[in-house]
């Protein structure tokens, strides 16, 4: 794999020139992809530049990330927790690592746009501090971001300034909590095993000793 990618490095350079200090970090994987992390103040400007300045007219998706490891472990009925035991599962490392292009907060919003003419895509990320989970809406730039932002509002508790109507997509209007946050308890899994998990009977002979004698 080549160690340079002129097209994607040029994208980073043009974003850096346009956003200045608003571009916080970038990562290019040659011939694969490019990731950019921008400041909250530059979030909408980055969308405008991507679409109108660079020709990334196709909006793919927008969503959220909660980088905090689950305080519940993987879950009571996961095979790794069964193997480790509840005490060991509770000791799983809780260190927050924000992934490619880094970050400084537990929560991030991220979005994907594409230049379908040149076959390039960009993933943009923005940090959202715990005390203010808000950022400018992309709807004025990419109208297709509308329901994606509604989903992030509902599932993560993010707020999008100037969105035309943040309201629930999936849940009752009086629902409390944000189900895609890592600290949201999945109570249904604590009341009964996850659907699809079944008891598996041993095959004949599986409990025999190595010499063929029954273990009973």
CATH fold name: Beta Polymerase, domain 2
Query: How many domains comprise the coordinates?
Result: 1
Query: For the CA atoms, what is the radius of gyration?
Result: 23 Å
Strand content range: 15-25%
DSSP summary: helix tally? 6
- Class per helix and strand makeup: alpha/beta
Mean pLDDT: 85
Low-confidence stretches: none
Which of globular, elongated, flat, extended, rod-shaped describes the shape?
A: globular
Helix content: 10-25%
Largest sheet: 5 strands, mixed
The number of E-state strands comes to: 7
Order of helices and strands: HEEHEHHEEEHEH
CATH architecture: 2-Layer Sandwich
CATH superfamily, please? Answer: NADH:ubiquinone oxidoreductase Nqo5 subunit
CATH C-level label: Alpha Beta
Q: Could you explain how this protein is built, in words?
A:
It contains six helices and seven strands, in the order H-E-E-H-E-H-H-E-E-E-H-E-H. The protein is an alpha/beta fold and 216 residues long. The chain has one domain: Beta Polymerase, domain 2, CATH 3.30.460. The mean pLDDT is 85.
Give structural attributes.
7 strands; 24% helix; two-stranded parallel ribbon; 6 helices; alpha/beta; Beta Polymerase, domain 2; 216 residues
């Amino acid at each position: 794999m080549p160690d340079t990618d002129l097209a994607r490095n040029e994208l980073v350079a043009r974003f850096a020139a346009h956003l200045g200090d608003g571009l916080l970090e970038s990562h290019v994987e040659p011939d694969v992809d490019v990731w950019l992390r921008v400041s909250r103040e530059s979030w909408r400007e980055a969308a405008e530049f991507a679409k109108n300045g660079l020709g990334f007219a196709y909006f793919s998706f927008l969503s959220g990330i909660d980088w905090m490891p689950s305080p519940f472990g993987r879950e009571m009925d996961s095979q790794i927790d069964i193997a480790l035991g509840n005490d060991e599962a509770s000791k799983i490392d809780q260190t927050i690592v924000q992934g490619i292009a880094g970050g400084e907060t537990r929560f991030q919003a991220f979005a994907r746009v594409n230049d379908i003419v040149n076959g390039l895509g960009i993933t943009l990320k923005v940090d959202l501090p715990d005390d203010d989970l808000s950022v400018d809406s992309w709807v004025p730039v990419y109208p297709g971001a509308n329901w994606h932002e509604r989903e992030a509002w509902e599932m993560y508790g993010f707020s999008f300034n100037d969105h035309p109507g943040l309201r629930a997509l999936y849940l009752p209007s009086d629902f409390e909590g944000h189900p895609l946050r890592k600290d949201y308890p999945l109570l249904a899994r604590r009341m009964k095993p996850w659907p699809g998990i079944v008891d598996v009977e041993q095959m004949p002979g599986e409990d025999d000793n190595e010499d063929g004698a029954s273990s009973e």
